[in-house]
């Protein structure tokens, strides 16, 4: 089965229990992605740019008709300490969480992790004023 032409040739839920051994071309960076090296039997995103394609409504069902690019927007840490990537579909906005793979680009992962720190939702030059407004003394201690 070819990822780019995902006509259903398997029963619903097939990929939940069976490995996906498909090689595919990333829709974003154009690199060839092979299943080996992921550290898992379920390769679901490009290890170079971390983008994916919207194929599933539920993990492994291949039931989505959207087919949009799933862009990585954040990372989070699961209870067991394992990192996962949050993807958002650029077409329909669907959100999904995918575990990181062993061969994922570490700089891209760290860039996602640092995004809230490097781009806070408020101007940094007003942090002292905002701290005072919230009841703090406004003094920054470094």
Lay out the secondary structure:
Blueprint: H1 14-17, E1 24-25, E2 32-33, E3 52-53, E4 69-77, E5 83-89, E6 95-99, H2 106-118, H3 127-133
Antiparallel strand pairs: 1-2, 3-4, 4-5, 5-6
Write up what this structure looks like.
With 142 residues, the protein is an alpha+beta fold. It has one domain (14-133). The chain has helices spanning 14-17, 106-118, 127-133; strands at 24-25, 32-33, 52-53, 69-77, 83-89, 95-99. Strands 3-4-5-6 form a four-stranded antiparallel sheet, with helices on one face. A two-stranded antiparallel sheet has the order 1-2. The longest helix has 13 residues, at 106-118. 17% of the residues are buried. Mean pLDDT is 81; it is low at 1-8.
Q: Any descriptors?
A:
142 residues, alpha+beta, 4-stranded antiparallel sheet, two-stranded antiparallel sheet, 19% strand, disordered N terminus
In brief:
The chain is of the alpha+beta class and 142 residues long. It is built from three helices and six strands; from the N terminus they run H-E-E-E-E-E-E-H-H.
| Record field, number of beta strands | 6
Question: What is the CA–CA distance across the termini?
Answer: 56 Å
Beta fraction? 15-25%
Q: How much is the average pLDDT?
A: 81
Task: Please work out how many helical segments DSSP would assign.
Answer: 3
- Give me the strand/helix succession: HEEEEEEHH
Structural class determined from secondary elements: alpha+beta
| Gyration radius over CA | 19 Å
Can you list the strand order of the major beta sheet? Answer: 3-4-5-6
How many domains, as an integer? 1
Shape: elongated
Share of helical residues: 10-25%
Largest sheet: 4 strands, antiparallel
Unreliably modeled segments:
1-8
